Amino acid sequence: MILTLAFRNLFHDRIRLAVTLVGILFSIVLVAVQLGLYLGASKMITDNIDHAKADLWITAYGAKSLEDGGMLLTSRERHQALATPGVKAVIPLVVRFAEWRKPEGGSTRVVIVGTDAEDGGLVPFNLVEGTWEDIKSPEAVAVDKSYFNELGIKGLGDTAQIATGRVRVRALTDGIRSFTQSPYTYTTLNRARSLFGDSDGTSFYLVQLQPGANVEKVRHDLESRLEGAEVLTQQEFRDRNLKQWLFKTGAGVALIGGALLGSLVGTVIVAQTLYSSTKDHLSEFATLRALGSSSGYIHKVILAQAGISAVVGYVLGISIALTILLFSRNTALPMVMTPGLAFWLFALTVGMCAISALSAIVKVTKIDPATVFNR
Amino acid sequence: MSDTPVLEAIEIVKELGSGAGKVRAVKGANLALVPGELTLLMGPSGSGKTTLLSILGCILTPTSGTLKVAGIDTSDLNAEELADLRRKHMGFIFQSYNLFPTLTALENVRIALDVRGQKGFAAANRAEEVLRDVGLAYRLKSYPANLSGGEQQRVAVARAIASSPSIVLADEPTAALDGENGHAVMALLARIAKEQHRSVLAVTHDPRTLSYADRVVRIEDGRIVGEERRPEGLDAPEIADLTKRRKAHA
After folding, report:
1. Which of A293, A301, A373 to mutate to test the interface with B (most CBs of B within 10 A)?
2. What's the pTM value of the predicted model, to 2 decimals?
């Protein structure tokens, strides 16, 4: 009967219910979009790092991010690293901003990623046309097919000028978006170096350890051997990138702030409508109290009202959020929805509604059952 | 008939308000209810009868005096314990029926059982049984808005007796009803007292109810001023005359 009464109380006043649901829906959509964009941005920032097979990253001291590695490392550091006990491989990786001159005029910035697949460090991923072997052919690069417009190209075989050399698109990736809006352009290590007129420079070294090696010990040894370089775990480098792009630029703060604001607005709207509904049904709750119901029974009715609102509001809200997600797929900042985020959003909705119910519960706790005789 | 009271009020005093606005609404009332009797608590408006009913129903706590329900002294009980006492021993009928507008007649009765922990088919069957008993078998699925005043009050009676409480307290049960429905509800309360052996106390100032009473308790200005018990074989008009004569004598 608790659910029946809660359901009837809610659906009895359809306009108020609609206001409640709009509040929840607005909140869920706002939070889902903000957090979806946050996850989407995080994925864009860390995609290359997540696909790199490295136990440790050697970076120039103070390197801010994958795209902004600072001073170049040399083969001296590589040899020092290779001589460290526990180290199996030290794989060079070049990542630098460069100017891409479009075939039809104009230019745009790209991020050159120079890596050799056979080294087993960072293998270009999500290749949908062409292979890694194709990228090894003269002048070859791979770009993401979602950036054709920005790069001024139409497809495979098109050429462009980068720094000192000509490049030809030989392979295409799909879904590798760049948070900096400078498309990733994959090529071989040597071609990347030659494009920048540097035969030895490296942005990062990806360190792979021998089986059973102690990561912390190797890291400590590397730090003591390498001057002017930092040694970070994969997770630390990942976090540094997120911190640089999401928080130092303020983008992440804005997205998280939007999500918090959405939760707050939703909570206030739901609280207001639940309180108002409880106030309207106060005489009925007083009757229940007079009939001998415990205060817990009445609280359950109010919480059930909040729960029903949460479930209905969530289903509507998540449906709209998923629709927005579909439309965002080919935009500069695609949304990401994971099962974890969907579950978290549901928990947030239920929590928001439960908190909203508190004001109504406080109100109902103060009911004087004697009012039943005054009606 | 057992003479052991199921509800006993001793020297009940109730003060309402505070400071200069403090009013003594009940001034040392004594009253006992025994099973099988329909008692009427009668008095003019403002005489304290509803306040006394609220105290007897453990809804208001007395300023002083003792209230015992089923032998339990209620003096030291908190709000939840008093609710528990109401749940176990009492059924209420209100002047304005106080039905849940969003629930059907059957559900209105079921919810009274639900708060007492009676759920499922057994509760549904019991609710249907008492609604049939009050003559509303044909209105089980009707919402209060679609019921007449008399029918709504009969649903309220069914709700009050569904859990078989030993005490039924009614506040002006006929006030909102026409003559025919008023008589029907009073007949129902009298039958409940007699056949189901419950203590029924109805607060009223409706003289039409007198003929159904086993006992009439008079309250004026917060004091119990008289009590008449219907002698064997005496009908309603005779009780009314007797009351008038006693009042005139006093």
Report:
1. A373
2. 0.71
What confidence tens digit (pLDDT) does each residue in A26-75 have? 878 888 888 888 888 888 889 889 998 989 999 988 888 888 876 777 88
Look at residue B70 and tell me if it is in a domain.
no
Q: At B39, which CATH number?
A: 3.40.50.300
Pairwise CA distance, residues B218 & A351, whole Å: 55
Determine how many CB atoms are found less than 10 A away from the CB of residue A230: 18
0.90 surpassed by complex ipTM = no
Q: Establish if B27 belongs to a structural domain.
A: no
Neighbours of B119 (CB within 10 A): 13
* Amino acid in position A96: R
* Mutation target vs B (from A4, A7, A287; most B CBs, 10 A cutoff): A287
Tell whether B11 is covered by a domain: no
Residue B214 lies in a domain: yes
Q: Which chain B positions have a beta carbon within 8 Å of A4's beta carbon?
A: 103, 107
Could you give the number of structural domains in chain B?
1
Which own/partner contact pairs does A74-78 have at CB distance under 8 Å and 24+ positions apart? A74/A200, A74/A201, A74/A202, A75/A200, A75/A202, A77/A205, A77/A226, A77/A229, A78/A202, A78/A205
Residue A46 C-alpha from the chain's centroid: 9
Burial category of B215 from C-beta neighbours within 10 Å (exposed 0-12, middle 13-18, buried 19 and up): middle
Could you list the residue range(s) of the whole structural domain that residue B161 is in? 34-59+84-249
User: Å from B146 to nearest chain A CA?
Assistant: 15
Angle of the B149-161 helix axis to the B105-114 helix axis, nearest 10: 20
